[in-house]
Design a protein that fits this description.
Blueprint: H1 5-35, H2 40-44, H3 48-75, H4 78-81, H5 86-96, H6 105-109, H7 121-151, H8 168-189, H9 202-219, H10 225-233, H11 236-246, H12 253-272, H13 285-316, H14 320-342, H15 344-354, H16 356-407, H17 413-453
Helix pairs in contact: 1-3, 1-14, 3-14, 7-16, 8-9, 8-14, 8-16, 9-13, 9-14, 10-12, 10-16, 11-13, 12-17, 15-16, 16-17
């Protein structure tokens, strides 16, 4: 039974019509708000909950038609009935993937890992230094610019207060589109394993990824950057909870102990904050509650992203660069459609024209985000995840220090104690992980030697 092409055309037509209708309405509202006095509708869009709902509606104009089309294609077994050609091949790649000749896990890693060669001490030292400096420069610069863009006004003078940039989704789009282009360029210039996963499966982690980034940018409007960095260090807790829900994982006792210690450290830091001593903080309890809620949203979505990507790695054995390209592809689609429908591009480009410094900051921010992802994959391929985790933990500590120096955040002694507890717990967790792995390898080697003797 061949699939009726009119059904796909109907789905596309309805979704396109609805999307265009919403887009023109919101662009009209945005242009009217920029040319006239603020209305109740434009004032309503200043609330982050309203912006979040608008984003969900915009993503729905992509998700719902796509889900209906995918379901229809699977029900009609399009991959078995469709003939050769460019369009059927694209449909198969997006919906069904390639189930033939799946590569092994080792083959999937060859695209980002160099073949094992003996290197001298100085070669290892220089490579490690290159990775460390690349990661620190990329993400420390990214963090400083992130706080500059979201918490400080542009065009401020002694007479004028200036204006802040509020469209977090535009920043997510700029980060993702450059990361996608870098990933595609890397795939074209390096040898990659055969890709077998249906492309649509990247959309789930892509959605959670852009939502975690959106919550992260929005949270900076309500909490200081050091608070946000320390909250990120505590995301081990929701990752463990999500791992139990998504992957049915079990954890060791020390993992629960270190998670509790991290929670204690974060609590000490948050309770020690003195709003009067931080010239960039706010004293509103509502603001503090909002910031905490947004950070919880960030950690929840980010935890789902890592667990879902882990499942995809296990099932389809794709390379990390392929994962980077797939996730960022759908991130560009979701955020691009949402920005078009809400008129976000228009407002962002107007802001960029009024404030050239903002344009420079956004470009550098996106470049640092994309290059940082490449440094992540290269560091893991050369030195493993433990070395990478240590580097990123050091980066978080340096980020807090750098933010306090540049933006004059005040931290009390109790707050410093909280930071020490958090990072001490993280390093303890890394040590325990490595110690247990070493004991397991030793036990396996002993058992293997015993079996050989028998």
């Amino acid at each position: 039974m061949k699939m009726p092409r009119c059904s796909i055309g109907m789905f596309f037509g309805v979704s396109l019509s609805l999307g265009l209708l919403v887009m023109f309405m919101l662009i009209h509202v945005s242009m009217a708000a920029s040319e006239a006095e603020p209305t109740w509708l434009s004032a309503l869009q200043e609330f982050w909950v309203v912006r979040l709902l608008l984003n969900f509606i915009a993503y729905g104009t992509v998700f719902i038609p796509a889900a209906l089309i995918i379901r229809h294609l699977k029900n009609t077994k399009y991959n078995e009935t469709a003939g050769p050609g460019c369009f059927p091949s694209v449909v198969r790649m997006c919906v069904f993937g390639s189930e033939q000749d799946k590569p092994s896990l080792e083959e999937a890693g060859r695209s980002i890992a160099t073949s094992p060669v003996e290197r001298t001490f100085w070669q290892n030292f220089l490579t490690l230094t290159f990775c460390f400096v690349g990661l620190q420069v990329s993400y420390l610069t990214w963090g400083v610019l992130q706080e500059r863009i979201m918490k400080h006004a542009y065009g401020a003078t002694e007479e004028l207060p200036g204006e802040k940039f509020t469209n977090s989704q535009f920043l997510v789009f700029m980060n993702r589109i450059l990361a996608f282009l870098l990933a595609v360029t890397t795939i074209m210039c390096t040898r990659q394993s055969r890709h077998t996963a249906p492309l649509y499966k990247y959309s789930y982690s892509s959605f959670s990824n852009i939502m975690s980034s959106w919550f992260q940018y929005e949270a900076l409007k309500f909490v200081s950057f050091p608070t946000q960095v320390l909250a990120k260090a505590s995301k081990i807790i929701p990752v463990m909870l999500m791992g139990k829900v998504v992957s049915k994982k079990s954890y060791q006792y020390y993992e629960y102990v270190t998670a509790a210690a991290i929670s204690l450290g974060v609590s000490l830091f948050l309770l020690s904050r003195d709003p009067e001593g931080d010239k960039h903080s706010t004293t509103s309890t509502v603001t503090t509650t909002t910031g905490v809620f947004l950070m919880v949203g960030y950690m929840a979505f980010d935890s789902f992203t890592s667990n879902w990507q882990g499942e995809l790695f296990t099932q389809y054995k794709m390379s990390s660069i392929q994962m980077m390209a797939g996730v960022n592809l759908f991130s560009c689609i979701f955020t691009g459609v949402s920005l078009l429908e809400q008129g976000g591009f228009f407002g962002a480009f107007v802001f960029m024209m009024k404030h050239p410094t903002f344009s420079i900051h956004v470009c550098i921010l996106s470049l640092c985000s994309a290059s940082g992802q490449l440094f992540i994959f290269y560091t893991i391929s050369q030195f493993g995840p433990v070395t990478f985790t240590i580097m990123m933990t050091i980066r978080q500590g340096l980020a807090i220090l750098l933010s306090c120096v540049i933006y004059h955040h005040a931290i009390s002694l109790i707050g410093v104690a909280g930071i020490v507890v958090v990072f001490g717990s993280v390093f303890t967790r890394i040590y325990c992980n490595q110690r247990i792995k070493a004991l397991k390898r030793a036990a396996a080697a002993t058992q293997s030697n015993g079996t050989a003797k028998v």
